[in-house]
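Fold this: IclR family transcriptional regulator
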Amino acid sequence: MEERPHVIGRVASLLRAIGEREPAGSTTSDLARDVNLARPTVHRLLVALAAEGFVDRTGATGRWTLGPEMYLLGSMAAERYDITDSARSILRDLARDTGESAFLSARRGDETVCLAHEEGSFPLRSHVLHVGIRFPLGVASAGLVVLAHLPDREVEDYLGRAELVPGWGAAHDVSPLRDRIGQTRLDGYAVNPALLVEGSWGMGAAVFDRREHPAWALSLTGVETRFSPSRRPMLGAKLLDAAHALGQRLAATAVGP
């Protein structure tokens, strides 16, 4: 019985790793490196998942992709969790009004995952975010604004277990992250001052579910010159207005948890 949660965690990590490489697919060796497991272990799990239809293997390349059962389950869950249709016009307006690229992300445990985006009109763009990319909470503006709006106890629990510095640099150590959480709470929106890629800035605002939990985030990304001190308050106000509008829309349509 003790082994079961361990196996479930491995399977979940494996499915996420496959999803991040869609639609090109993944080799067994790639996946073993992605989830830090031995290749024979990964192959055994993949064969078991394939037998249930959760993954597929193409005969020509031998690469693994998500299977039809994932699509069926996802389509059934979409009625409750997929808010992209509700958010699409808000993202479009946000991109049009600011000229920056607008994104929708959802919290998934200790991460945020990007669900949708709309390109802005300004010709220079940041390419840090794209649909499907995941970041830990506290990393990128969406992850920071979600973390900042969690209750203090949940924030402290997360900071106690998260190890962000090895993957994301010293700026994501506990002390500077606490400072950014405090500033985000004061402003209401988060600012990522090129902490992931030099010259690429981002700002985010939380979208709350019916229980007043920060379940999603709207964000804007662009080049540094577009996020000057004089322009950030305007961008923050646009984000907060859009996040509030989306939260109201979701509450009215009973979409989300």
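The chain has two domains: 3-73, 82-253. The radius of gyration is 19 Å.
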